[in-house]
Design a protein that fits this description.
By secondary structure, the chain is mainly α. The chain is built from six helices and no strands. Helix content is 67%, strand content 0%. Helix 1 packs parallel to helix 3, helix 2 packs antiparallel against helix 3 and helix 4 runs antiparallel to helix 5.
């Protein structure tokens, strides 16, 4: 599936894990902290890494970073609830969307609609699982309803989507630069 050699996949995996660790601990972007890259990391790991083990390893990393951020970093534990388990299908959706895109990855403009469609589909499902799971199953809301959930979805999804788009855009630039520096005319998945 992946066009990278094993050593390159390991380096990409380490870089993605570091990116998630460095951005996830803050949970929200500030002047001093970058926005959370977790969504993009799962999507990109599926594209650049052969092993499906990347997804559960990254999920464990996300849980560990959350644990450390809460216990030692002073981040609020408000989001940790029984609904935390909904992050598994949320991140799984992003990973599978990345795998779907990997089949269409080319160093050509014709690949861009596939990237947009797969990223948007994965992000949409991730948001429904993560936010929907939290809203309906966390126990933090007295009487959850679809009428109340929709405005929350409209409020929070654009920020998550823009963070993901930022990192996917940067990854696309790096991909093109690296491919051109290697003289690759084609980058097929």
């Amino acid at each position: 599936m992946s066009f990278l050699a094993s050593r390159q996949q390991i380096l990409v995996g380490i870089a993605l894990a570091l990116l998630m660790a460095l951005t996830r601990s803050h949970h929200w972007a500030t002047l001093y902290a970058l926005p959370d890259a977790s969504w993009a990391v799962f999507f990109l790991a599926a594209i650049y890494m052969r092993s499906y083990w990347a997804a559960p390893v990254l999920m464990l990393e996300a849980a560990l970073v959350d644990y450390l951020a809460i216990t030692w970093g002073g981040v609020s534990s408000f989001c940790v609830s029984p609904a935390y388990w909904f992050l598994i299908p949320a991140y799984g959706a992003l990973f599978l969307a990345g795998r779907a895109y990997a089949h269409h990855l080319r160093l050509a403009w014709s690949s861009l609609p596939w990237l947009l469609a797969c990223a948007l589909a994965g992000a949409g499902l991730a948001e429904l699982f993560a936010s929907g799971g939290f809203y309906f199953f966390s126990g933090r809301f007295a009487e959850p309803s679809l009428a109340e959930f929709i405005p929350r979805l409209v409020k929070y999804f654009p920020a998550m989507l823009s963070s993901m788009a930022l990192y996917l855009g940067l990854a696309a630039v790096v991909h093109v630069v690296v491919a051109n520096s290697r003289g690759d005319a084609r980058q097929a998945g």
